[in-house]
Amino acid sequence: MIPETLREAARRFGDSVAYVTPRGWPITYAELDRTSDEAAVGLRGRGVGAGDVVCLALPPGIEYLVSYLAVAKLGAITAGINDKLAAPEQARILDVAGPALVLAAPGVADVLRTAGTSVPIEEHGAADSIGHLLSGLRVPGEAPPVIPDDPDRAVAIVFTSGTTGSPKGALYGSRQLRFITDTDVGDAWGTGGRSYNGTSNATLGFMSKLPGNLRRGGTAFMMARWSPRATLELVARERMTSVGGVPTQLALMLRDPDFDAFDLSSVRSIIVGGAPITPGLAEEARARFGAPLASRYSCTEAGIGLGTALDDPAEDAVVSVGRPLPGVELALLDDDDRPVPAGEVGAVCLRSPATMTGYWRDPEGTRAAFTADGHVRTGDLGWVDDRGRLHLVGRHKEMYVRGGYNVYPVEVEAVLSTAPDVAAVAVATRADELMGEVGVACVVPRDPAHPPTLDDLRAFAGDRLAKYKLPEALVVVDALPLTAAEKVDRRALGRLVDPDA
Questions:
Q1: Residue 254: how many CA atoms within 13 Å on its side-chain side?
Q2: Out of 10, 78, 200, 291, which could bridge 33 as a Cys pair, Cβ 3.0 to 4.6 Å?
Q3: Which residues contact 311 (CB under 8 A, 6 or more apart)?
């Protein structure tokens, strides 16, 4: 599905700029097709064929993109590795993926070899021109044989996590990518637009949205390393009409001390996904960017899920993650996989043609990930209101029990985030001899010299939350710890509030 889409994009858009690399040089749609052809021939010469896995241990950039396209042109499978992961985490992903070849950045290649992997590793540094792009791999002027379109062909392995335990790789094929693309852009070609890539290329968003981005025929700016200042500069300089990312990235942009000095008048929309956005953050983002906000909700295993539209009522994206997208079925189930009564909290499960084929080389994990009728388990808990909107209350593993009452951190965070002295907040859990578990509010203050007190927070939330849900301790931090995916690191929070746990 990817090779066919790229060829058609090259035919339609030819000399139009498809991507601007982290080093600032543009590559057109025609050049993207040609360079990935040449790289595919080089990979084939190294023995890579249909069904083989190629791991990309490359930073965000054009090298990753062209390699992904080249692997797809051979009918092989790309497994991306987030370059922010530590060496042992990356090595564990290699063990699971079982690749035929690894394409890696020079420093990463050295680390992986030190970790003891026996997989062939080929180094590729960041290029400063098309001529140097993946030099040594590409075979100039050559193209691989065109492979027939096969909806059942495996295309990508997206790893859910490499931080603890055994990472799991969600397998996606042409069938899923086509449904995701049709849902995003339909049959449209050439809708254009200017965007930026601010997350790891190894994420579901980049790997699954690529065909849709090629259909649009727009220009995407690739960031070597996301930062709030660099993103604001890019949006202002290139007059981008949309900003997006996970809620943490949005919050960090708003915290930039020079935010109001940037000319962001071109921004017409804010798209946030990857985690629920707190009401305080959503309201601030709308006000300061001067644009409507829409949310997206899914998980690595589901492909696509729910969302809100920019013209939906403003509260929809604040109190909920929206309604199921076309073709997506939502189920809320109890511990026995039975539907919960209307309005009650249940395990969020999704079913659609976009859901993963299964976990790569993990049949037991795959069985556990799906219900008997084919819904994938997201790991989230939520309830649906009378307007059909899904309200998330947290992860099943994050819920804690205080004195016999269930408490969901996301619910508490949603209220505390609107406190006037709070810039960001996350709730962690600490053991307690009397209550079993209690909540600890980890707060980034708006004014570090005058942080809120625990009494301030409890008083602010006291008329909106039951007493047993209120935090019973406070930790003031300069910034919330983040995972490699730029989301709040709940495990690190746990260690912060309870080092002995």
A1: 24
A2: 10
A3: 292
**What values do phi and psi take at 149, rounded to 5?**
-65, 130
Beta-strand pair 17-20/26-28: antiparallel
- Residue type at 127 in one-letter notation: A
Q: Are 320 and 334 in contact (CB under 8 A)?
A: no
User: What are the backbone dihedrals phi and psi of residue 106, each rounded to the nearest 5 degrees, phi first?
Assistant: -50, -50
The dihedral through the CA atoms of 444, 448, 452, 453 has a sign that is: positive
Which value, in Å, is the radius of gyration of the alpha carbons in the chain?
Answer: 23
Q: What's the chain's length in residues?
A: 501
Measure CA of the first residue to CA of the last residue in the chain; give whole Å: 48
> How many angstroms separate the CA atoms of 226 and 483, rounded?
14
Tell me the sheet residues that pair with 392: 382
CB atoms within 10 A of CB 225: 11
State whether residue 454 is helix, strand or coil: helix
> Alpha helices of 333-480 — where are they, by DSSP H?
363-369, 409-416, 454-461
Query: Using an 8 Å Cβ cutoff, are 43 and 54 in contact?
Result: yes
Domains of the chain and CATH, by start? 2-13+26-175+207-215 (3.40.50.12780), 400-497 (3.30.300.30)
Q: Which amino acid is residue 77, in one-letter code?
A: I
Where helices occur in 239-377 by DSSP H, the ranges are 247-255, 279-289, 316-319, 363-369
Beta bridge partners of 426: 442
Exposure of 409 in the CB half-sphere (CA atoms within 13 A): 25
Residue ranges of alpha helices (H) inside 347-467 are 363-369, 409-416, 454-461
Which of 19-28, 279-288, 439-448, 470-479 bottoms out in mean pLDDT, i.e. has the lowest? 279-288
pLDDT at 399 over 90: no
Calculate helix-pair angle for 29-45, 2-13, nearest 10 degrees: 140
Backbone angles phi, psi at 234, to 5 degrees: -65, -45
- The torsion region of residue 15 among left (phi > 0), alpha (psi -120 to 50) and beta comes to alpha
* Token pair recorded at residue 443: 């707060």
Helix (H) or strand (E) holding 240: none
Nearest to 76 by CA among 186, 22, 150, 168: 150
Phi and psi angles of residue 66, each rounded to the nearest 5 degrees, phi first: -65, -35
Tell me the pLDDT tens digit for each residue of 300-356: 999 999 999 999 998 999 889 999 999 999 999 999 999 999 999 999 999 999 999
From CA 172, how far away is CA 187, in angstroms rounded? 21
